[in-house]
């Protein structure tokens, strides 16, 4: 073989400076100067520029979002670990912690849907088990444009297939998520995945590499040339011209990950005395995991011998080795003298593990290859000393003169409008998606997808965790602050409807370009709104992820901060679902129905767009309604509870009839159009008739009795100026068939 | 009739976990002279007559680009044989 | 009595089975690594679901070369009960312990849902707790659950009453709606549905208990004969 | 070195849902002169020197029978090419 041919020629430090080659790696002139003049006091070589480009990308450094993230409400008496680690931890009693985090894989998925989705799932799982927690559930939050072409349909099916293939194979149930369709996501689909894990609180691990002489151990798959520069790439925006940036994709290998996961949990649980720290290799691969571990420990340096890194391909350069995003890899810091003990565990599990370096005195982060020092930078310069930008903020043009009048739906035939509503893809059943997910493996899934929040019991204890993902980007588009509050409120409503009390949230902040003041405004306001609500519901932010530059040809997506919330149900008997349970039960609406039409599904359905000033929202009132519902559930008064969200009250009623194929006979003095209002803070609740007095006493003025559940499989709802009248079975089939039909 | 045999393989830099697992298993079974194993897809496409060779080439390339191979991760090549009837 | 649960690299339902046997059936149970080469001391062997070796190549194709397989073959030959669930079924066919094979579902998609099954033979050691033609509800969760065998084999399966469970609404395209079959001797059952996921009402069904109970009854009745 | 190309295909009587789905999709895209499409697996196995052709044939048949193909539903065939070095 001709060896010379494979030897890439790297630019010299001078060429990098003179031709500004750092720009193509995503570093700005200012950042390059900072590295040259303030950090190294010399010209960085090619490898070093690569290290900084990876570490100073938005994905790794949060340089644009850090000042915003500081505004999050992160306190709370049960928070064991907040943002900063791989994932956050909340104490749920009995020496147990729930660990959760979400991750976006928008850009990789846009390039290669199947593999983008699989590697997203793989990455978030590693975040969870590297904390010492066993993953017990995944959720996926998807945003697509309405499918129009075969390509669109193929794209969606590949995303779903990717999520299912990874989660199913590794044996973690995918128990929930949310899927909505809007053309705002036409060129920037969102693929966010969340993972929830469970751990013993005395087994917490951290991603730190301390103690000179301790070994750095590389675990898992070999390093190849896949996904190189992915971290800086993930933070680039797409436009038609940048198409060529779409470089090598990574392939997920769930089988290897399963072995790596079991081996790591074995080391953490049974050999913790030998382990100093552990971290997954995610964005910016080896450099990010090692530099972060080094920097976090503080006071030490690190030397890595790249010749020892397991390599899948010949002649890889230091740049490639350090920035490769090959999947299914972990980095450990192991106490000197304990290496063999740990390596044996990995060997038993059939996982490759090798010592590739060690912690040093001083603060040099050094890389060796073929006996030469190929990079030498201060440890902290890569991780904790990345620049931070305070971006400018300006109210977006579309918010400056928005119409304060609420949209008025036009409804001639209420039943027909309801049926049309049920077939809107955002409203329609997502069964055809979640049916391809293993929702039950681990045999703890008490409420599978199809109700408000999923519920996973904690085996051997009388308690369960409820989990959900939510956000309505349309609301945020019309008002990022209030919309941010609503995102958290809706998640909490789903948690409460399932019988749980909110514990905390994780998030994926999917936004546009932070360097544009109007798009930065959306990010900043949304975070403040979310934070208001988190504080109100006592649900601190414990982890999260930022995906910026979701913009195509200068048009950003709707601001879409996905909220992943977890709640605790003390006592399995309180697990509640949205389905009506038996004929004769009384049906109530909890909460006031107002004029909530701007940004609603009916506005979109009838006008093709959303516009105007977002309808009003009162966070205190929301908290009060949620408390009432949780009180009613805990007093054993409730048979079913369903939050009212997109599509309004009538949609929620229809959905509640579907699960057990029951009917309703209801009467209300609201006019027909109000049945589609998306006013927040509302639930549909059904109760046994003998509990009427107790329930009404508890609720006071806040719940209206609408009528009864019936067993005739018919929905009849009489409004002030008309009525809804339909066969539940027919409606059910319309609702269930809409999505598979549009994806065929 | 033409019989088109299309071979689709992963690009060099892309990990093929499946091939890797098979090769490892062969090694465990004692087939240690297997130095390398690649796994790809193999299509046999039978195409009706009445299309020129140039058009056929164009069509096959088209089908491969659009559907049979994923240009992000895969390469393909193909051969065409004329046949009497469908195989 | 004592159950063995075989665990292969990539198995992911072994703990679910473990809890079903230990916590619900209250019987002794032990995980046995694929690296072992003996099944001595066990009364019944369970092969769990999951994705052994990632289901790479074909489901079950690589697992069947594991060191434990000769011991499993020996165990099966001795007439003691072997139950392969989902991936376990696939491994049993690949290992030649059961006829036929499991192909991709006709929809070409993974399907996870609860399916009604018809008990087609209530006389087997795995189904004696049920009545003939009884409908039971068990979850399925598979991508390759489409049972295939040629006509000859199917005739033999029918003639020997080896088809234990059939789907009522064939979700995956299986020949003759087959959900579970035994070998000719009747002591090796492979089934795609997951009985271990249906052992508590809170999980949606407890119909799976009948299968484990049948095995336990069988083993215990033989113990009585042996010792009595 | 020898390069062995192994082709594994479903037997005629076996329906392959994946191949069917692709063929249907091609039809929808207007490629209606595609009469038939089969999808199989394609292995490229590089084998070290020092083994006679007979032994190699035996070994490859062995590997295929045991692992690469499932005799219930699949057929295989292969060709061997001698190569200078690994491809
Ligand atoms: N991508 C998905 N993956 C898994 N479950 C999903 C997905 N999309 C929707 N679901 C499930 O479908 C049900 C309805 O979802 P959604 O309409 O978003 O509910 P809601 O409006 O109450 O938040 C929920 O149980 C949800 O978990
Ligand atoms: Mg809901």
Automatic annotation (TrEMBL), chain A:
It catalyses: N(2)-formyl-N(1)-(5-phospho-beta-D-ribosyl)glycinamide + L-glutamine + ATP + H2O = 2-formamido-N(1)-(5-O-phospho-beta-D-ribosyl)acetamidine + L-glutamate + ADP + phosphate + H(+). GO terms for biological process: 'de novo' IMP biosynthetic process. ATP binds at residues 62, 101, 507, 544. GO terms for molecular function: ATP binding; magnesium ion binding; phosphoribosylformylglycinamidine synthase activity. Mg(2+) 1 binds at residues 103, 545. Its EC number is 6.3.5.3. It comes from the Bacteria. Gene3D superfamilies: PurM-like C-terminal domain, PurM-like, N-terminal domain. GO terms for cellular component: cytoplasm. Mg(2+) 2 binds at residues 127, 280. The active site is at 59, 105 (proton acceptor). Pathway: Purine metabolism; IMP biosynthesis via de novo pathway; 5-amino-1-(5-phospho-D-ribosyl)imidazole from N(2)-formyl-N(1)-(5-phospho-D-ribosyl)glycinamide: step 1/2. Residues 16-63 form the Phosphoribosylformylglycinamidine synthase linker domain. The keyword Cytoplasm applies. Residues 212-366, 582-717 form the PurM-like C-terminal domain. It is found in: Cytoplasm. Residues 84-199, 450-568 form the PurM-like N-terminal domain. Keywords: ATP-binding, Cytoplasm, Ligase, Magnesium, Metal-binding, Nucleotide-binding, Purine biosynthesis. SUPFAM superfamilies: FGAM synthase PurL, linker domain, PurM C-terminal domain-like, PurM N-terminal domain-like. It holds the Pfam family AIRS_C. Part of the phosphoribosylformylglycinamidine synthase complex involved in the purines biosynthetic pathway. Catalyzes the ATP-dependent conversion of formylglycinamide ribonucleotide (FGAR) and glutamine to yield formylglycinamidine ribonucleotide (FGAM) and glutamate. The FGAM synthase complex is composed of three subunits. PurQ produces an ammonia molecule by converting glutamine to glutamate. PurL transfers the ammonia molecule to FGAR to form FGAM in an ATP-dependent manner. Monomer. Part of the FGAM synthase complex composed of 1 PurL, 1 PurQ and 2 PurS subunits. NCBIfam families: FGAM_synth_II, PRK01213.1. Belongs to the FGAMS family. This is Phosphoribosylformylglycinamidine synthase subunit PurL. The gene is purL.
UniProtKB/TrEMBL annotation, chains B, D:
GO terms for biological process: 'de novo' IMP biosynthetic process. It holds the Pfam family PurS. Part of the phosphoribosylformylglycinamidine synthase complex involved in the purines biosynthetic pathway. Catalyzes the ATP-dependent conversion of formylglycinamide ribonucleotide (FGAR) and glutamine to yield formylglycinamidine ribonucleotide (FGAM) and glutamate. The FGAM synthase complex is composed of three subunits. PurQ produces an ammonia molecule by converting glutamine to glutamate. PurL transfers the ammonia molecule to FGAR to form FGAM in an ATP-dependent manner. This is Phosphoribosylformylglycinamidine synthase subunit PurS. Its EC number is 6.3.5.3. Belongs to the PurS family. Pathway: Purine metabolism; IMP biosynthesis via de novo pathway; 5-amino-1-(5-phospho-D-ribosyl)imidazole from N(2)-formyl-N(1)-(5-phospho-D-ribosyl)glycinamide: step 1/2. It comes from the Bacteria. It is found in: Cytoplasm. Keywords: ATP-binding, Cytoplasm, Ligase, Nucleotide-binding, Purine biosynthesis. Its main location: cytoplasm. The keyword Protease does not apply. Part of the FGAM synthase complex composed of 1 PurL, 1 PurQ and 2 PurS subunits. It catalyses: N(2)-formyl-N(1)-(5-phospho-beta-D-ribosyl)glycinamide + L-glutamine + ATP + H2O = 2-formamido-N(1)-(5-O-phospho-beta-D-ribosyl)acetamidine + L-glutamate + ADP + phosphate + H(+). One of its GO terms (molecular function) is phosphoribosylformylglycinamidine synthase activity. GO terms for cellular component: cytoplasm.
TrEMBL record, chain C:
Gene3D superfamilies: 3.40.50.880. It is found in: Cytoplasm. Its main location: cytoplasm. Keywords: ATP-binding, Cytoplasm, Glutamine amidotransferase, Hydrolase, Ligase, Nucleotide-binding, Purine biosynthesis. GO terms for biological process: 'de novo' IMP biosynthetic process. One of its GO terms (molecular function) is ATP binding. One of its GO terms (cellular component) is cytoplasm. Pathway: Purine metabolism; IMP biosynthesis via de novo pathway; 5-amino-1-(5-phospho-D-ribosyl)imidazole from N(2)-formyl-N(1)-(5-phospho-D-ribosyl)glycinamide: step 1/2. CDD domains: GATase1_FGAR_AT (cd01740). The keyword Cytoplasm applies. SMART domains: GATase_5. It catalyses: L-glutamine + H2O = L-glutamate + NH4(+); N(2)-formyl-N(1)-(5-phospho-beta-D-ribosyl)glycinamide + L-glutamine + ATP + H2O = 2-formamido-N(1)-(5-O-phospho-beta-D-ribosyl)acetamidine + L-glutamate + ADP + phosphate + H(+). The active site is at 86 (nucleophile), 194, 196. Its EC number is 6.3.5.3, 3.5.1.2. It holds the Pfam family GATase_5. InterPro entries: Class_I_gatase-like, PRibForGlyAmidine_synth_PurQ. The keyword ATP-binding applies. NCBIfam families: FGAM_synth_I, PRK03619.1. HAMAP family: PurQ. Part of the phosphoribosylformylglycinamidine synthase complex involved in the purines biosynthetic pathway. Catalyzes the ATP-dependent conversion of formylglycinamide ribonucleotide (FGAR) and glutamine to yield formylglycinamidine ribonucleotide (FGAM) and glutamate. The FGAM synthase complex is composed of three subunits. PurQ produces an ammonia molecule by converting glutamine to glutamate. PurL transfers the ammonia molecule to FGAR to form FGAM in an ATP-dependent manner. Part of the FGAM synthase complex composed of 1 PurL, 1 PurQ and 2 PurS subunits. This is Phosphoribosylformylglycinamidine synthase subunit PurQ. It comes from Lentilactobacillus hilgardii (strain ATCC 8290 / DSM 20176 / CCUG 30140 / JCM 1155 / KCTC 3500 / NBRC 15886 / NCIMB 8040 / NRRL B-1843 / 9). The lineage of its organism: Bacteria, Bacillati, Bacillota, Bacilli, Lactobacillales.
């Amino acid at each position: 073989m001709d060896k010379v041919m494979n030897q890439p020629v790297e630019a010299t430090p001078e060429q990098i400076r003179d031709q500004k080659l750092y720009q193509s790696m995503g570093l700005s002139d200012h950042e390059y100067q900072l590295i040259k003049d303030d950090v190294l006091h010399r010209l960085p070589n090619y490898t070093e520029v690569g290290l900084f480009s990876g570490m100073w990308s938005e994905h790794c450094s949060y340089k644009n979002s850090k000042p915003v993230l500081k505004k999050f409400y992160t306190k709370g008496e049960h928070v064991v670990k907040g943002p900063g680690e791989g994932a956050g931890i909340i104490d749920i009693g009995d020496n147990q912690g729930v660990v959760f985090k979400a991750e976006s894989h928008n850009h990789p998925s846009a390039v290669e849907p199947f593999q983008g989705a699989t590697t997203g799932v793989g990455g978030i799982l590693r975040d969870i088990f590297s904390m010492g927690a066993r993953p017990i559930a995944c959720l996926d939050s998807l945003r697509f444009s309405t499918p129009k072409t075969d390509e669109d349909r193929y794209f969606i099916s590949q995303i779903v297939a990717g999520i299912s293939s990874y989660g199913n194979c590794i044996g973690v149930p995918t128990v929930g998520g949310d899927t909505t369709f809007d053309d705002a996501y036409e060129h920037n689909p969102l693929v966010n995945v969340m993972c929830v894990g469970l751990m013993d609180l005395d087994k917490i691990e951290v991603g730190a590499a301390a103690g000179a002489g301790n070994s750095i151990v590389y675990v898992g798959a070999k390093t190849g040339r896949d996904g190189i520069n992915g971290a800086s790439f993930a933070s680039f925006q797409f436009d038609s011209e940048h198409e060529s940036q779409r470089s090598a994709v990574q392939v997920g290998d769930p089988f290897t990950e399963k072995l790596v996961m079991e081996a790591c949990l074995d080391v953490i649980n049974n050999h913790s005395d030998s382990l100093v720290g552990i971290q997954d290799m995610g964005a910016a691969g080896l450099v990010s995991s090692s530099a972060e571990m080094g920097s976090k420990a503080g006071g030490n340096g690190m030397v890595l011998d790249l010749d020892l890194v397991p390599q899948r391909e010949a002649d890889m350069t230091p740049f490639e080795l350090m920035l490769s995003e090959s999947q299914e890899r972990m980095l450990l810091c192991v106490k000197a003298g304990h290496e063999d003990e740990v390596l044996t565990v990995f060997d038993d599990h059939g996982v490759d593990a090798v010592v590739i370096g060690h912690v040093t005195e001083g603060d040099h982060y050094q890389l060796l290859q073929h006996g030469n020092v190929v990079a030498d930078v201060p440890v902290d310069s890569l991780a904790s000393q990345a620049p931070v930008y305070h971006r400018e903020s300006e109210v977006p043009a579309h918010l400056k003169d928005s119409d304060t009048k609420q949209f008025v739906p036009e409804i001639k035939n209420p039943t027909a409008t309801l049926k049309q509503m049920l077939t809107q893809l955002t409203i329609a059943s997502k069964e055809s998606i979640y049916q391809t997910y293993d929702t039950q493996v681990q045999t703890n899934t008490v409420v599978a997808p199809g109700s408000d929040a999923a519920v996973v019991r904690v085996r051997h204890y009388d308690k369960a965790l409820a989990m959900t993902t939510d956000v309505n980007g349309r609301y945020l588009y019309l008002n990022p602050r209030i919309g941010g509050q609503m995102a958290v409120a809706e998640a909490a409503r789903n948690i409460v409807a399932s019988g749980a009390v909110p514990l905390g949230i994780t998030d994926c902040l999917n936004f546009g370009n932070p360097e544009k003041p109007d798009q930065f405004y959306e990010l900043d306001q949304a975070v403040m709104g979310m934070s208001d609500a988190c504080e109100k519901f006592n649900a601190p932010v414990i982890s999260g992820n930022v995906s910026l530059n979701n913009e195509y040809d200068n048009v950003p997506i709707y601001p879409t901060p996905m909220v992943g919330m977890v709640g605790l149900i003390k006592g399995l008997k309180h697990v509640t679902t949205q389905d009506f349970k038996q004929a004769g039960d009384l049906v109530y609406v909890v909460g006031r129905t107002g004029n909530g039409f701007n940004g609603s599904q009916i506005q979109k359905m009838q006008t093709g767009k959303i516009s105007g000033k977002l309808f009003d929202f009162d966070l205190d009132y929301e908290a009060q309604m949620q408390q009432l519902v949780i009180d009613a559930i805990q007093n054993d008064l409730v048979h079913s509870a369903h939050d009212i969200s997109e599509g309004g009250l009538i949609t929620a009623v229809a959905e509640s009839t579907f699960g057990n194929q029951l009917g309703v006979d209801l009467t209300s003095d609201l006019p027909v159009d109000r049945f589609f209002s998306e006013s927040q803070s509302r639930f549909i609740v059904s109760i046994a008739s003998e509990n009427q007095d107790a329930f009404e006493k508890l609720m006071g003025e806040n719940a209206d009795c609408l009528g009864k559940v019936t067993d005739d499989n018919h929905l009849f709802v009489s409004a002030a100026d008309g009525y809804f009248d339909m066969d539940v079975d027919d409606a059910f089939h319309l609702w269930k068939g809409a999505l598979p039909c549009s994806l065929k | 009739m033409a019989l088109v045999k299309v071979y689709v393989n992963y690009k060099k830099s892309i990990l093929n976990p499946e091939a890797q697992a098979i090769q490892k298993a062969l090694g465990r079974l004692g087939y240690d002279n297997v130095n390398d194993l690649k796994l790809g897809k193999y299509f046999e496409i039978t195409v009706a007559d009445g299309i020129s060779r140039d058009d056929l080439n164009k069509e096959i390339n088209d089908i491969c680009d659009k559907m049979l191979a994923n240009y992000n991760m895969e390469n393909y090549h193909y051969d065409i044989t004329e046949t009497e009837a469908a195989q | 009595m004592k159950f063995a649960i075989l665990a292969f690299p990539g198995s992911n339902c072994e703990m679910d089975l473990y809890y079903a046997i230990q916590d619900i059936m209250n019987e002794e149970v032990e995980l046995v690594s694929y690296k072992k080469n003996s099944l001595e001391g066990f009364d019944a062997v369970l092969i769990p679901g999951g994705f052994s070796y990632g289901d790479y190549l074909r489901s079950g194709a690589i697992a069947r070369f594991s060191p434990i397989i000769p011991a499993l073959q020996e165990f099966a030959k001795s007439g003691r009960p072997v139950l392969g669930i989902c991936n376990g079924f696939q491994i049993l066919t690949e290992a030649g312990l059961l006829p036929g094979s499991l192909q991709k579902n006709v929809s070409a998609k993974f399907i996870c849902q609860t399916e009604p099954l018809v008990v087609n033979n209530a006389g087997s050691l795995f189904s004696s707790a049920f009545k003939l033609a009884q409908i039971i509800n068990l979850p399925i969760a598979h991508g390759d659950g489409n049972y295939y065998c040629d006509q000859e084999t199917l005739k033999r399966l029918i003639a020997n009453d080896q088809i234990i469970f059939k789907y009522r609404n064939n979700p995956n395209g299986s020949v003759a709606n087959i959900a579970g079959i035994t070998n000719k001797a009747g002591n090796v059952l492979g089934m795609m549905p997951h009985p271990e996921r249906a052992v508590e009402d809170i999980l949606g069904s407890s119909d799976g208990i009948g299968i484990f109970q049948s095995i336990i009854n069988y083993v215990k009745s033989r113990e009585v004969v042996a010792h009595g």
